Amino acid sequence: MNALALPVLAVAFLLSMYFRSYFGVVGPALSADLSLSPEQFGWLASAFFASFSILQIPVGISFDRWGVRGPMAIMMMIGAAGSAIIALSSGYWAAITGQPLIGIGCAPIFMGVLYHLGRSNEPQKAGQLSATVSAVGSAGALLSAAPLTWFVEAFGWRLACWLAAAAMAVIATAVALALGPTPASADESDPDHGCGSLVPLLYLVPVCLTLSVGGTFRNAWATPYITSVFGPDAGVGTMLTAISIVGIVTSFMLPIVLARVSARLIVISTYALGVTCAVLVAFFPNMSFFSACAGLSILYAMGNVHPLVMTEAQTLIPPRKRGLALRALNTLVFLGVSAASAVFGEIAGLSLPVVTTYRLIFAITGVAIAVAVVCYAVFRRREPVHSIGQQPWP
């Protein structure tokens, strides 16, 4: 593997993490300047994740056919164009055009990192390199918090979008130059057990749809919630930074906890904590700024169990179907974010009292998470169908 490939992939993932959450800062400023309604704000936040999710399966197919370098570089260039369109937008329709294009640009990055490193290295080394890239990339969420808030206040959201567009274009070029051809996959010798063998995955559908629902607040709705309930002078940048730090810290803690506790217990406990937080904030959305930040941080950190859920899924998928099935499940994760943001926008547009609006939003969030964890706990298959290693899924 080219020596430049790892840093280029790390910066690409940093940009992807930045764009996943940048709208939480840029969106409210853009919405105010363009006089958008709450429903339009919701659809704008949703558009990125809609295109991101829809493209997961086509991206995987393109990687299988052409490798990572070409598709990833081209799609990142499209993402750069989307950010430029946002910077130039004078109304809702221009902005709603740019957001899906940014989603297209980010769609291949995470899968591209895993795909390229997995094909280029032995499994253990690939895991270590992927963890390194993920750690560096997580700084993108911090970059889109307090630093972006300061930048937007000082220089405006349009310049922020222009700089992000330029960065995406530069890294797309670097991907095209630094990544070599993707090595061919070893032939899977396990037999194909037919479509019926994917039925055990159905209990994971509600979990996947709600895996990143807490991220919907960090990526878009935390700022409107905090400023509406606690006033425009509330420390939004500080709040977003705190949420990002909690997400990063808990992601580094997860492997340590996993060495002592089963993955199943971690997933159930995390979801139970998420339900508790959503319900408490639903009952007391205006209790205090600190309690609101704590609740939002825990809901956001729920997304850290994403790799645990995907690892469990692999034990239930025949090897020949593994790629397609995992891409389908990953699609559901981002469709869940997209749908949640759109629903929140419709609720915000009902002209209810502010506190009532956010009580309803957090209540719906709590119900969705509760349904998911009940399905996981009750219908989860106890034994794996296909082992992915020497140890069974705990």
Order of helical and strand elements: HHHHHHHHHHHHHHHHHHH
CATH superfamily of the largest domain: MFS general substrate transporter like domains
- The number of helical elements comes to 19
Report strand %: under 5%
User: What's the total number of strands?
Assistant: 0
The CATH topology of the largest domain is Growth Hormone, Chain: A
Task: Write down the oligomeric state.
Answer: single chain
Number of folding domains? Answer: 2
Shape call: globular
Overall pLDDT score: 82
CATH class of the largest domain: Mainly Alpha
Biggest beta sheet attributes: none
Radius of gyration, whole Å: 20 Å
Q: What class do helices, strands and sheet pairing give? A: mainly alpha
Architecture per CATH nomenclature, i.e. the level-2 architecture of the largest domain = Up-down Bundle
Nutshell version of this structure?
Helices cover 75% and strands 0% of the residues. With 394 residues, it is mostly helical. It starts with a helix and ends in a 15-residue tail after the last helix.
